[in-house]
Design brief:
Layout: H1 20-49, H2 51-69, E1 78-85, E2 90-96, E3 109-110, E4 120-130, H3 151-174
Antiparallel strand pairs: 1-2, 1-4, 3-4
Helix pairs in contact: 1-2
Length: 175
């Protein structure tokens, strides 16, 4: 994993005054979510009208869900964040540990677990720590101690080498 310098914005546990930027971003998020809901409703209306399309869509969603469910991010790659939401509530959330902020890559909002406001923009945040400590690096295992060859093995090896030596001598003298 690459080295990440985690960032903070504001202090979630202290008094926080919403800024114009916060109000504007919350309004934009609400508009984006509304537009997305309309598109999903239109898509499902199309699926109700076309059973073949609905079957293909269901198969595709099943494949995607199986792929998502087949991979679990290890706990040592998940960062915990304390966040203050637009609604004023403070909660914890998690993001992949390679993200320096919890608001990156389309994750700048969440549903408030206290009041249910959805979306609620993340307006302040601070890293808490990884869900679990990274595993300690594996020390390379030392090769097994070499065992001494037995007398019989040594005698067989000597006999093989003497035979090879004799063969080479005869081939040189005849050549």
């Amino acid at each position: 994993m690459r080295e990440v310098e985690y960032e903070s914005r504001g202090v979630p546990l202290e008094d926080y005054q919403l800024t114009r930027r916060d109000h504007r971003w919350q309004k934009d998020l609400e508009a984006i979510c509304q537009a997305a809901r309309r598109q999903v409703e239109q898509h499902f209306a199309q699926l109700r009208d076309d059973p073949e399309m609905a079957a293909r869509d269901q198969e595709a969603r099943t494949r995607v869900l199986q792929k998502i469910m087949s991979h679990r991010t290890p706990d040592h790659l998940i960062m915990r964040w304390r966040v203050r939401l637009y609604c004023g509530h403070i909660t914890e959330t998690t993001r992949h540990a390679e993200n320096a902020q919890p608001t990156l890559h389309g994750s700048s909002k969440m549903r408030c677990p206290e009041c249910g406001q959805d979306p609620s923009a993340i307006v302040a945040f601070e890293p808490i720590g990884l869900v679990a400590e990274p595993p300690s690096p594996q020390t390379p295992s030392s090769p097994p101690p070499s065992r001494k060859p037995t007398r019989a093995e040594l005698e067989r090896r000597v006999a093989a080498l003497e035979a090879e030596n004799a063969r080479l001598r005869t081939s040189q003298s005849s050549g």
